[in-house]
Amino acid sequence: MFRFLHSSDLHLGKPFGRHAEDVRGRLRQARHSALDRLAQAARDGGAGTILLAGDTFDQETPAPTVTRQALNAMAQAADLTWVVMPGNHDSLAATELWQTIARDKPDNVILALSSAPAMLEGAVVLPAPCTARNPGRDLTIEMDQPTPDGVIRVGLGHGGIHDFGSDAPDGPTGIIAPDRAAQAGLDYLGLGDWHGQIRITPDTWYSGTPEPDSFKHNQTGLALLVAIEAQGATPSVTPVPVGEITWQRLDLDLTPGEDIAALLGATLPDLAARRDTLVDLVAQGRLGLRERHSLQTLLDRAAPDFMSFKSDLAAVQLAQEASDLDGIDPSGGALRQAAETLSARTQDPDLSAEDRRTALSALSHLFSFVAVEEEA
Question: What does the alpha-carbon distance between residue 252 and residue 247 come to, in Å, rounded to a whole number?
Fold first, then answer.
């Protein structure tokens, strides 16, 4: 039997420039500590080998501290063998990077820098390292090469399946045949590049990233524990959670008269998980002004619980209620006239959607100012 852990897309050194400084620091640290969690997941699963299918580093010129600390983490897991293959972000074009790693790596790290088979105890790994950010061809075709009889054959690739897609911002790094495992006589094909874990066929999988970096896939960080009994046997593939930070995109559907506090409480993660969670909440539906103000107040109170919290109420339409306008100004004075004008604009079909949203936002702010004064 050959038992191993398949992972990819660690993107060590990713800057996370769009986030606040404290959030950036935590995200970078979580990515580095993913190496320790992968090692523990391998041990817990009885695996002695970890295969990293590309994009271990986020860029071709990571800071020296990033590469050195990654190698130190692998060295500390000396009971495991690490097979590290270049992806599109850290391709073979980064000659200085891979020369440095080859010089400084510990003995338990194997670099897959060519298509040459890497012999392991119980199996052979057939890698297809990315030669450039966009190789423009299916590099896994070179996996169709002879290996000793009876040895388990594991392919390691990085790129998009032709009917699938890629997380690379400039398009797929190569078009991988979805039946490459069958064509090349592989017992398992482990892929990287797509950050969500997905099964292509029983013997071809994207591991997904062990530490998500966006809301795109709405998954926790995962790896794959793979066991192959013998050459020709169907692999046993088990998803293993290894992530530290959770990214959640949440939908909130609203209707007038609903218990907003109860609905929000049922939608948001439990209190214990909030410190390690980034949330992107998008609301839609209809609410009265008073209900909208209450919702915004609840969101503002919940936000500090989270590592990062963003909410978008732009799609929430106004449910007209005279009592809401009375709450702004029951006397019919200037404030009431302004509120009625804004209210009419939120429903005016001759206005653009953006103009209607602007009017609703202004009306909501007006109601909020009055409500704050009343509360004070």
Answer: 16
Give the span between the Cα atoms of 177 and 138, in whole angstroms. 7
Q: How far is CA 122 from the centre of its chain?
A: 33
Q: Distance between CA 25 and CA 32 in Å, rounded?
A: 11
SS (H, E, C) 8-62: CCCCECCCCCCCCHHHHHHHHHHHHHHHHHHHHHHHHCCCCEEEEECCCECCCCC
- Could you read off the pLDDT of 220-277 as tens digits, one per residue? 999 999 999 999 999 999 999 999 999 999 999 999 888 999 999 999 999 999 999 9
Q: Cβ distance 54 to 11 under 8 Å? A: no
Burial of 132 (0-12, 13-18, 19+ CB in 10 A): middle
Q: Is 74 helix (H, G, I), strand (E, B) or coil?
A: helix
Residue 316 host element (H or E)? strand 308-318
- Distances from the Cα of 81 to the Cα of 1, 4, 90, 195, 310, angstroms: 16, 10, 20, 23, 41
Question: Reading across the β-sheet that carries 81-85, which strands appear in turn?
Answer: 109-111, 81-85, 49-53, 2-7, 222-228, 236-241
Encoded tokens for 343 = 């209210």
* pLDDT tier for residue 219 given thresholds of 50, 70 and 90: confident
Question: How many helices and strands, by DSSP H and E, does the chain display?
Answer: 9, 17
Distance (Å, rounded) from C-alpha 316 to C-alpha 284? 4
Give residues with Cβ within 8 angstroms of 241, minimum separation 6. Answer: 220, 221, 222
Alpha-carbon gap, residue 92 to 220, rounded angstroms: 29
Residue 143 is which amino acid?
Answer: M
